[in-house]
Amino acid sequence: MAEQQPIRFGVVGSGWRAEFFVRVARLMPDRFRCVGVVTRTAERGAEVEAAWGVPTVRTVEELVAATGPTTDRPELVVVSVPWPVTPEVTTELVALGIPVLAETPPAPDADGLRELWAEVGSSGLVQVAEPSPSMPAHAARIAAVDAGIVGTPTQVQVSSTHLYHAVGLVRRLLRTGRGEVTVRATTFDAPLLEPRGRDGWTGETEARERWNILATLDFGGGRSALYDFSDNQWHNPLRTNRIVVRGSHGEIVDDAVTRWVDERTVLTSTFQRRVSGLEQNLDGFDLEHISLDGRVLYRNVYDGARLADDDIAVAALLAATGAWVRGDGPPPYPLADGCQDHLLGLAIEEASRTGAPVRTAREAWADA
Hints:
This protein is α/β, with parallel strands linked by helices. The protein is built from nine helices and 19 strands.
């Protein structure tokens, strides 16, 4: 059997999120190869080349031409640019016949989503880099739900990540389609200390007013979601991740799974996360697998790369997109799902801003 070649990808953009994709290629060169990065200026290109160790070019055409600094034509291109620019770059790549993995969201607003879908929706060339369902813990929960352990999933409560990311996780767990949804939301202000931000420890010692959004989403058919997100919840260690998945025969609460077994038996078990590198284990710190009652629900195929969960999710998205491009797997997260997730995220913001319910329509991507 021929040895599988690394997935060749390019990146348009050189911001904070773009580096995540380059980093997994640097850590796992046997699996991924970043053939080049597009930066707007030569000065920024020089910085990226020095810091990231990859060649840079100024235009999309140079990136996909397989000439000059890039030498290899990418199999797919990651678009990681500011929101208003994403549709423009995505459309340009599709016109060149290049498969795209677009960072979230794929367009800044509802009109932009509709315009982008009209431009490239029928191409079948665009996937969206939604990482939440690929996070190891969430992947294990999804596997448990798909196995029917809690029966038919009916409600998800998530206080973890924001807007379209949370919606993407909710819809995957509930197995909802892309139909009409009713959203209600309220914003509260309350004092909260912020010890950490994206750039590290803040030195803050006094709480100040910060916002919190509570929203409900009614998908119909008895399926619903509760969204709870606080300002800077990604980084603030005083706000932990919480998730509940309720089903007809049980529920998942964070890492605990309670379910009906028979007429006289209800059991509660917990997901077990096996990690190497603790105490006298000399194999290095890494996630090995996540199990439930002795059954492995998630196995880290990148064991040995020492990746954080978010990096594992990025690697999983790149790998799945590469397999799709090569005809070896299904589309990992089609543009239609990315559009639907952001549409509902926008509805959450609108409902929280106006205090009135928002009913989203059935859009052109609903049946894609």
